[in-house]
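We close this part of the discussion by returning to an individual protein. The sequence in question and its structure tokens are set out directly beneath this paragraph:
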Amino acid sequence: MAERKSNLGVSGGYGLRSLVLACSLVFAVASTAAPALAAQGAAIVVDAKTGKVLYSSNPDARRYPASLTKMMTLYLLFEAIESGKTKLTSRITVSSHAAAQAPSKLGVKPGDSITVKEAILAIVTKSANDVAVAIGEYLAGSESDFAARMTAKARALGMSRTVFRNASGLPDPGQVTTARDMATLGRALQDNFPREFAYFSTSAFTFKGRRIGNHNRLLGRIAGVNGIKTGYTRASGYNLVTSVNRDGRLVVAVVLGGASGRARDQRMASLITDYLPKASAGAKKVAVVAAATPSAPAPVLAAASTSPAASKLAGSAKVIGGALADASAAPLPRKRPAAGVADPVDTGSVELADATPIADLNTEEGDGGDDSAGPDAPAAPAMVPAGWKIQLAASPTQAAANSILEKALASAPKALSGVSPYTEPVSKGDSTLFRARFAGFASKDAAWKACAALSKQKFSCLALQ
């Protein structure tokens, strides 16, 4: 089996590789169009001292945040700690609604309570959805009210293209963000809460005798990495926000829509290697400071499972509007508010080409562990980026195809910078192959140059349009 994988993707077996590529093209003609199975990738690297963008690829394309959402959940909790409205030893009671959330979760029963410190640690390591919702209810009385506050805080921080609908990041078609906005939030967490930010580097914590490890696989493996957060749903692909502080240089980097956990981590590692040396080594110049948000009410600090009417964001402008909205795009599906509850946030019209019906979204947050969905779990149904593509191989399993993509990224990171890895199934009769491809090349020449670089690394490669 190991020999077969080698023949399909990396070295040796030229005849077999050519045969597999040829078969995949025949299948493409014979089969109906198969949906692309990976989200359009997005990435950004920002000098956290100056705010300068060192690298970007689709930085303002709206994507689903998945558990990156919890960065804002913790931002508001840290804000409550710093303002004296709560403290690390305060207890958060878990409601039935919070306890009923889909995994990943801590598994706290309704009526039980945990300390604020335990809640923080459960988020940064386990990415616990039940705890995230409990935090939202603790601070705002209800998760819907808390989501309104999250969006208001995003606007105050300059995150102009982000809308939050829940505290956990579990699928909601109206909950969107961008790589640029997530970098802004990552910097704000560092700048505004340096003491609490240290929690993001926690490798593991023990809860009721159970050791819980951090989903972020780059911690302890890449020098200088000190957080921040992983995220995964089928609709989002594999997401990661990373902070790196090394040799006097500080960057925040974001990768959204990775084809797999390993591919995402490898992309992040390559970005750190390439762009950290370009960051400023001087004194810090620009910090992310939240503007005043008088429309956001003070924390409720209650664990009520039923909420009062949602507070209106008085005097606030539309969350998304004007030049930020695509006038030709249909509005995203909206959750209908409960009877008698005001809808506190007007999201306006946003463009999200790959918005997925809620029934098709994965309801399990595997997060950085990446294993809960299984090694062959497809990434997000989404539109493949326009432009030229390259195909490396077609493999009998998606896991094998993803492995080829990961090896290609590791072997030729510069040639594949700014393009998106994805797998595509193609079937004929009872046989199915998974194409390993990269999309988003600006021209035929760019695709051919990438193939030339990969051929030097003993990959088969075919340019397609």
Summary: The longest strand covers residues 431-441. Confidence is low (pLDDT under 50) at residues 1-39, 303-383. Residues 63 and 459 are 31 Å apart (CA to CA). The chain has two domains: 2-36+384-464, 43-278.
